[in-house]
Amino acid sequence: MFDKTKVRELIMDWTEEEQVAIWNEYCEKVVYYDDEILENDLDELLVGKTPSEVAVIVCTDAYNPYDDYCHFDGYGRLESFSHTNDYRSPFDMDDLVDWIVDNEDTLGYFNEYDIEVEEDEEDGDE
Fold it and tell me: What is this structure's pTM?
């Protein structure tokens, strides 16, 4: 069983790009597509959209074209941010850590890290 504290510390030590990658993998597994974190590249994100669709998507005070990342807000509009811990970011460390601990077999690459609950911790309170 994975230790929640160790998983959290591990993810906090990762680069922002690594955090975004694991978050997006989590979103794909739990079908939270609106919460996926996207690179803030309008040319790529809005290919094929009409000018009126583009206006609806980006004309909001929650979107800044100079931020690094964005996500769709559930209403089809973009919200932007530059860090996973920004207030507009959908990244939720608690949800991610809980999901990793509950589904440790799903993400096999976590097996290379020492994040197991210690023997003496299993017998007592964690």
Answer: 0.81
